[in-house]
UniProtKB/TrEMBL annotation:
InterPro entries documented for this protein: GGT-like_enzyme (IPR052896), GGT_lsub (IPR043138), GGT_ssub_C (IPR043137), Ntn_hydrolases_N (IPR029055)
Protein name according to UniProt: Gamma-glutamyltransferase family protein
Domain of life (superkingdom): Bacteria
UniProt source species: Dactylosporangium roseum
Pfam families, alphabetized: G_glu_transpept
Amino acid sequence: MSKDLLARKPLFAPHGVVATSQPLAASAGLAVLRRGGNAIDAAVATAIALTVLQPGSNDLGSDLFALVWDGSRLHGLNASGRSPALLTRDLVLDREPALASAALGGSQATATQAVPARGWLPVTVPGAPAGWRDLHERFGSLPFADLFTDAIAYAEHGYPVSPTVAHHWGRAAEVVHADLIGPEFVEWARVFMPGGRAPRAGERFRNPDVARSLRSISGTGAASFYRGELAEAMVAHAERTGGLLRADDLVNHESTWVDPISVRYRGHDVWELPPNGQGIAALIALGILDGLPASPSLHQQLEAIKLGFADAHAYVADPAFHTHPAELLDPAYLAGRRMLIGEHAAEYPTGDPLRGGTVYLCTADGDGRMVSLIQSNYMGFGSHVVVPGTGFSLQNRGAGFVLDPVHPNVVAPGKRPFHTIIPGFLTRDGAVVGPFGVMGGHMQPQGHLQVVLSTVDDLLDPQAALDRPRWYWHTGLEVRVEPGLAGAVDDLRRRGHDVTVVGTPGAFGYGQAIWRTDAGYVAGSEPRADGVAAGF
């Protein structure tokens, strides 16, 4: 990685900040702050704009998770959707003979991806529109419809596509969509491949259909998405083209306000949302490392995150179907796991890594409110199913289920799948430090751990913490590092790690962070992507 890529300086701002992966979306959130909106208004406006400006990573058909600091305490929102009532393990095995054969043979496939990544089978109810509404109803100050202004304008009149977005959009069109056959996929190409290809960096893209969908959501408080015209369009398309989504699935959707979970690390509290997300993997790893007598080595960090993933992939599921694994954060349990870390790399049972396709944002206002929010349709444009006339793609989060009938995350009707997307938050002695996140599927808990260590152990500001070269544990003994960590490669290899130096920035996630200071805020934005931290 070139030094020029990591040349950003932190943003210092006295009144408010928005940090996210697309500059125009950050501007939309900042405009809300300057109009008198609070951090929650700004977060919702930014999230809505991102569905238009970064559609491969999120869309109206996405899920959403958020942590909200209201000025004195932290709140959690799980706005992820559930599987259709018609989705059963038997139905998946019936439609996918190859998976059925693997399941009968006891293959490891039964413990990993249960359904294909594209098409109707992995489609779960989108939770993002309800999440926007629920965040606004509880904490917002401006009228809900005002938060859609910039997103609708960009959808209707167009915008120049940013470089990183264009790169991933092109790969989705050329590599993924080219192999998809069926009536459910036709509308995706019409909407997202104008002129027969994906837009290139700097080219103007318009999506008037999604502008109409956004107007409908804004004017009805998201009701049209779950029981009105948009819901009817989704169900009609599903019934015509083999989908499982039905009216009751949408009508019955609701977000859940939850209590965030945390561990202590070097006098700080690191906060995540409880399952069905994988944030507990980061907390397990940090809890393990907290018991070490000194700042952890890179080898120890890798071993701790592997232990975190082993537990997350074994136990994380919809809490309505499985007891929340609070015992995984018990100090005695973590001490036992810590004892497993030796001088050499080890393998721990775990599932296969899951791919990304996500946006993350964080906001802060002049009254001390702060938001950590993540939104995703998964794996780049999700299912690649676009409902005609709506302009948005549906997520494929059902690909997070497994087929193992005794696993807590086994595919079932009306169930939330294992989720990769996780917002993070940091406090110290009950006082706020701030929101942070690193998107990128399997990379996310690893990115959270690295940002926390850079902040707490090395006292780096948010931008410096995000600039720092990253490592990524893939699976087994396989580790990938950015060129800036090349000096550590020989030691890791001596310890048994299978290390590759990778110069592709996107392989190591994209993050944002905002810390509270005596003078206001200091913020950073991912140098490996198009994003920005904007403040006033």
